[in-house]
Structures are given as C-alpha cells and as structure tokens.
Amino acid sequence: QVQLVESGGGSVQAGGSLRLSCAVSGRTFNTYAMGWFRQAPGKEREFVAAISRGGMATDYADSVKGRFTISRDNAKDTVYLQVNSLKPEDTAVYYCAANPYGSMRRESFNSWGQGTQVTVSS
Fold first, then answer.
1. Taking 90 as the threshold, does the pLDDT of residue 66 lie above it?
2. C-alpha to C-alpha distance for 14 and 11, rounded to whole angstroms
3. Which of 18, 42, 46, 107 is least crowded, fewest Cβ atoms below 10 Å from its Cβ?
C-alpha cells in the first residue's frame, strides 16, 4: 500500500515562494506517476501538476504554468512542488497523489496524502 506524507506548507505573502515535499513509501517509487492537487475552501479538488515515472514528462494546470514546478528524486522517494509568485487564489490544501500503475492521466491518481495547507495573504 502506498503511503504519502506532505510537508512544506505555510503562510506567505503574495509573491512569495514555498517548496512542498511529499515522501512516498510502499512499492517501488520509480514505477509511480506522481501528482499534486489542491482544494480551496468551498471548492472541488483540482489538478495542479503531474510528473512521469522517470521525471521526463510533466503536466500543469493552466493557472500555475510558469509559476509552479514539479520534480522528483527517485533516489529519495520524494516528489516536490516548487511554488513561486504565489497569489491569494493559490490558497488551498495541497495534496500529493500517486498512480502506482504509471499513468499521468489526471483522473488516474488513486492514492492520496493528508494534505498540507498553503495560505497566501495579499
């Protein structure tokens, strides 16, 4: 069973940056596609970014392109989300997600962490 633990959230002012991390345990990490999603108060969970098993392919939501960067370190079983130029509308709980079968399709992620809060003030 895959276990995911996020860290790195916090409160920042608009324009600030954070680096979110997600440590993964369970099966072989380098067989998983990994992703980040977020859920703001009163809204549905939405896709943020995804990365392929080897890290060569990435996918981003239009709202974060150019500001957020997903990466992974297969030696450390960890995926990261660097979030820059933060806006108040980026305020949400950010969830790490895994697909042990390797697909990056946004609807295919089926293992989730507990989330880490990101709050951006204006």
1. yes
2. 10
3. 42
